[in-house]
Amino acid sequence: MMTLLVLRARLQSLYQKHDIYMKPVFKFIIALVIFLTLNNTIGYDDRLKQMPILLALSLLCAFTPSAVLLLFAGVVAFLHIYAVSVILSAIILIIFIVMYCLFLRFTPKLGVVVLAVPILFYLKIPYVVPLLLGVFATPVAIIPTCLGVIIYFLLRIIQEAASIQVTVSLEDTMTVYSYVVDGLKDNKQLFTSMIVFSLAILITWVVWKMKFDYSHEIAVVAGCFAIILGFLISSLKFNTADEIGTMIVGTLISGIITGIIQFFHLSLDYSAVEHVQFEDDDYYYYVKAVPKINVTTPQVNVKRFNTQKTQIPGKHLKEDVMLEEDEFEDEE
User: Cα separation of 282 and 278, whole Å?
Assistant: First the structure.
């Protein structure tokens, strides 16, 4: 345990010293992963799949707010879809504009969440998002989480609709429009994911704010239980039992990842809890103080000695004599 605490202290110290450089690096990596995922999912335009363009966009997103990353991702997705279907790109553009305006109005600082949900869906661990948001955010984070779920299922519908051969006639336009809208409106998995993720965020956040011991750790467990129970009920209702195993394993992995991140962010020592009471002119206060576990990194002190090999008269053996740096006089 002490080894983990020392490691955490060193990582925190390293991040505090170099956060001005590490934040752009992390944002660059996230942006690059997002653009690569878009190219692998709906990469219909080969020009946008060139590495110099990806690096340039990722570098620009590294030094701009998260809302800009969301905007660029939407533009790249639109251009990919435009390369295969003008009608479909127009429909998607309208949907993106509505979602983008809704997002900027309520949660402008959580742009990465909207893009993280579909990416983690492809990695089979989207449950990390509601658990982390329940721990580190507020219930307002439900909005970008639901938008991220919509984007994921929208991309899946786009992949299916792109194979439909249509023209620019009004009849074909309405056919594609109906296909996309009905695919979203009648998608039971979409609404189930939105409801379960929203409940997981609320349950995790409520338990996290409670005052009993180990509430932070129990909050993550409660969130995992809510996710598993929610999807189990939906799988029994919609007959999707083939996905239960993947969901449970993904939820457990997500809980472990959330617990690790929580440990490196904050660790409390409940064995040293103190209850303090004091008063002022208007109120009498009962305060519960839980100390944080903070350790200092061990300092290694190295003491140097000068070594000299001397030959003692009358003997043929040599031995190392440790000489301190103090001055001394030879005997006459």
Answer: 11
Q: Judging by DSSP bridges, how do beta strands 318-323 and 306-311 pair with one another?
A: antiparallel
Count of Cβ atoms closer than 10 Å to residue 311 Cβ: 10
- Give the residue carrying structure tokens 């300092």: 299
Angle at CA of residue 330, ends 324 and 332, nearest 5°: 160
Q: Could you give the angle at which helices 244-265 and 215-238 cross, rounded to 10 degrees?
A: 160
Expressed in angstroms, the distance from the first to the final Cα of the chain is 61
185 pLDDT tier (thresholds 50, 70, 90): confident
Domain count, the chain: 1
Read off the pTM.
Answer: 0.76
233 located within any domain: yes
Residue 328 maps to a domain: no
Query: Taking residues 154-161, what's their average pLDDT?
Result: 81
Compute CA distances 73 → 96, 197, 226, whole Å: 10, 23, 31
Q: What is the pLDDT at residue 198?
A: 94
What is the pLDDT at residue 128? Answer: 94
Supply the mean pLDDT for the chain.
Answer: 79
Would 297 be classed as within a structural domain? no
Question: Tokens for 112?
Answer: 């990465």
Q: Which residues constitute the domain of residue 238?
A: 2-272
Q: 317 in a domain, yes or no?
A: no
Euclidean distance between CA atoms 158 and 81, whole angstroms:
8
Give the CB-side neighbour count of residue 48, counting CA atoms within 13 A: 25
DSSP state, 180? H
Q: What is the pLDDT of residues 204-219, one digit of tens each?
A: 999 988 887 788 889 9
- C-alpha closest to that of 193 among 229, 147, 231, 241: 231
Tell which residue, 66, 36, 244, has the closest CA to residue 144: 66
